[in-house]
Amino acid sequence: MFLFSSNSDDDDDEVPLAKRAKLFSGRAESSKESNPSPADPTPPSRTTVAKVPMLKVNPYADAPVSPTARDHPIFATVDAVADFTDQFTRLESENAQLRKAIKVSDDQVLEANKLTADSQNENILLKDELKKLKKKMKDEQDARREAAIAADEKEGALRESITNLLMTCANQLLKLVDEEKTRVAPEAAPGSSSAQP
Length: 197
Fold this sequence. Notes:
Largest sheet: none
Number of domains: 1
Structural class: mainly alpha
Strand content: under 5%
């Protein structure tokens, strides 16, 4: 004998219909075993589903159909399904083309973004290189200017030293000439006096 708890009815709500029928027949058999009855056991009744007659649809669209048969709702349904199928197929084709176009444009956008990033990096590198070249040119100009100033200073100092040297030489020459004149003059004077007596 099977013992069922009081919440088995609640559990039955969650059990599918086919399983419930099986459980119900199991309960009935267990109750028969505990209480044998003299009546003949009767099999559980089965419900039968009547077959729905299938309409023969003419596969040829050009086949003549009587106007009364054409008014039947199945033809309207078939036409609606055919229109829906055509529209669905067309939309799926358009959808596939749009997906391809979107993929191509996505690829183009990615390539454009990559080119933009590359050109920005190249631009930054070129700006840095230009700054370096400008600084180098400025340093070279400053060095040339300083070299020119130094050369001018050296040239000025050299001119000054040459002028001083020439002045010194000229002064020395004049001094030597004066000394020679003074030395020659006293010698000539005593010789002339001795020649006269």
